[in-house]
Design brief:
Low-confidence stretches: none
CATH superfamily of the largest domain: MetI-like
Largest sheet: 2 strands, antiparallel
Distance between the termini: 45 Å
Strand content: under 5%
CATH topology of the largest domain: MetI-like fold
Mean pLDDT: 88
Number of domains: 2
CATH architecture of the largest domain: Orthogonal Bundle
Number of helices: 12
Radius of gyration: 24 Å
Number of strands: 2
Shape: globular
Strand order of the largest sheet: 1-2
Structural class: mainly alpha
Order of helices and strands: HHEEHHHHHHHHHH
Oligomer: single chain
Length: 293
């Protein structure tokens, strides 16, 4: 290698290191700015309003009531139900594509599932508003209301499918094939080999898919607004107009001012805390899964 070639490679490596360092620093800076904005505005408002008032049941801006407990409950119910539906369907789909589907059909089916990730959330909301809500109202709901937790959960369950299927399938494919072949050699059936050997071996990736789907469901806004109703009341039924935390922020972000707008920032602090708690829980679960392996 000539001296010029060596100098060129060395300079190129230095440039790439600088680019990588800049990208990492920019990410940290962006996160720091968001944290400072949320905490500097949200925490003083929570202290000023009072924890009992802020986490109360009543949200009525004209009377100074900023309780978000009903929205926390609605967000929890919608996220839990949509994740449960999406994980069951998505994980079974990934398993089917892994070993129980003709090989020639795997590629096209996976591409069609991945296309779901490219559809704008407002289209999902429009579909839910025109198809799911009227169907639930006319054929399922006992009180004649189609809006609510169930309609939002069904829409979100479809939205999280690409994440669950893709990540779970990649995790299953990453498990050494010798595990599957060894199970068959020991007399296990195809189903037993997949569900009792391959799936537990890929549980770290499956957990990642579940956490990503929870994050998507918790943070989704537009589609949820269109099918959930929007009433800031405590959820008591699957067929009831309620409001999630993200929907509350979006519905008032362009109209409110003063303390009401600051209350939305404080709501963002709660969402940030939930997201951080979710990531920490996933890290702990992933560490335990890797330790058991």
């Amino acid at each position: 290698m000539t001296g010029k070639a060596y100098q060129y490679i060395k300079a190129r490596d230095a440039v790439m290191r600088g680019i990588f360092l800049f990208c990492a620093a920019f990410s940290i800076l962006a996160l720091s700015c968001i944290c400072v904005f949320l905490f500097a505005n949200g925490l003083p408002f929570i202290a000023k309003t009072g924890i009992s008032n802020f986490f109360g049941r009543k949200w009525h801006l004209s009377s100074g009531a900023y309780g978000i407990l009903s929205m926390i409950a609605a967000s929890f119910y919608v996220t839990a139900l949509s994740t449960a539906i999406g994980v069951v369907i998505g994980l079974l789909t990934a398993i089917s594509l892994y070993k129980f589907c003709p090989q020639k059909a795997v590629g096209p089916i996976r591409q069609m599932i991945n296309l779901l990730a490219g559809i704008p959330s407002v289209i999902y909301g429009l579909f839910g508003l025109i198809v799911i809500v009227p169907y639930l109202r006319d054929h399922v709901s006992p009180n004649g209301i189609g809006y609510g937790i169930l309609s939002a959960s069904l829409v979100l369950a479809v939205m999280v499918l690409p994440t669950i299927v893709s990540v779970s399938l990649d995790s299953l494919n990453a498990v050494p094939g010798s595990y599957y072949e060894g199970a068959l050699a020991l007399g296990a059936t195809k189903e037993q080999s997949v569900f009792k050997v391959m799936l537990p071996a890929a549980k770290s990736g499956v957990l990642a898919a579940v956490v990503l789907s929870i994050g998507r469901a918790l943070g989704e806004t537009m589609a949820v607004i269109m099918v959930i109703g929007g009433s800031p009341v405590m959820p008591k039924s699957l067929f009831q107009s309620v409001r999630t935390l993200t929907a509350n922020i979006a519905m008032g972000a362009t109209e409110l001012s003063g303390d009401a707008a600051t209350a939305l920032v404080a709501t963002g602090v709660v969402l940030f805390f939930f997201t951080m708690l979710l990531n920490i829980s996933f890290s702990l679960l992933k560490g335990e899964a890797n330790g058991e392996r």
